[in-house]
Write a structure and sequence with these properties.
By secondary structure, the protein is α+β, with helices and mostly antiparallel strands. Helix content is 38%, strand content 35%. It has a five-stranded antiparallel sheet. Strand 3 and strand 4 form a beta hairpin.
């Protein structure tokens, strides 16, 4: 297992960041349901814990950044840079 620790500036208002955060996680859960088997939201919906075969990742956001922290298979660690670009692109939509 490898540690994942990503922080990306979202450049959005708090309302836009919240809306896009929720939409991105829900879309990922639908698109990758084979891998994302469980999503647990915090009461304020600012944190989502995603898990599936071989990974557990906590996604969160604040006024400036979106964070992804957790453990992933070692092979996925090589995809960290592409994941950052993907998150940045999704957040700008």
């Amino acid at each position: 297992m490898a540690k994942l620790d990503i922080a990306i500036e979202h450049g959005q208002t708090a309302e836009a960041a919240r809306s896009n955060f929720e939409k991105a996680i829900e879309a990922a859960q639908k698109q990758y349901s084979r891998y994302i088997q469980r999503v647990e939201w915090s009461k304020d919906r600012e944190v989502a814990d995603l898990s599936g075969p071989g990974f557990a990742v906590r996604l969160s956001f604040d006024d400036r950044k979106v964070y992804a922290k957790g453990t992933v298979p070692a092979i996925a660690k090589m995809l960290e840079a592409p994941m950052k670009m993907f998150l940045a692109r999704v957040l700008k939509k």
